[in-house]
Amino acid sequence: MGSNTVVVRDGKRTVVIETGLGNKLDAKMRAIYGAREMLPSSFAAAGIRMEEVDVVINSHLHFDHCGWNTTLSEDGTLKPRFPTHATIRSAAKWSTGGCNWSATGQFTWRSTMSR
Questions:
Q1: What's the DSSP call for residue 36?
Q2: Which of 11, 16, 71, 95 has its CA 20 to 30 A from that of 61?
Q3: What CATH number should be reported for the domain whose range is 6-102?
Q4: How far apart are CA 6 and CA 16, in angstroms?
């Protein structure tokens, strides 16, 4: 499955649009979707630090669009992938579910952006 993340920098902010599959899929799902978990290394290669991301925009909260909003740590806990960001997503999608393993308090937007 092709999964792309767009990064926009305007000199003041770093905005990430869609975060892709993430690293929480089991082996069977990784094989089905061809998940290669490349976002962290791709960001590093482009000189983008996770801490500098200000805003993450998700069109909706399916696993293939918001998977890297959180990351599965080696100790099995979930942590925000972009620790200093605000997330913008559809309020309608928030109420209908999806991305159930990333309930980290990072989804904070309805009509205005907040941190």
A1: -
A2: 11
A3: 3.60.15.10
A4: 6
The letter for the amino acid at 44 is A
Q: Are strands 55-57 and 86-88 parallel, antiparallel or unpaired?
A: parallel
Tokens of 46: 């482009």
Domain chopping of the chain, boundaries:
6-102
- Looking at residue 112, its pLDDT comes to 35
Q: What is the pLDDT of residues 87-97, one digit of tens each?
A: 776 655 544 44
Predicted TM-score (pTM) of this structure: 0.73
Quote the longest CA-to-CA distance of the chain: 41
Higher pLDDT, 69 or 101: 69
Q: Look up residue 48 and give its two tokens.
A: 């983008």
Which residues in 36-73 are b (16+ Cβ under 10 Å) and which e? ebebeeebeeeebebeebbbbbbebbebbbbbbbbbee
Distance CA 112, CA 99 (A): 22
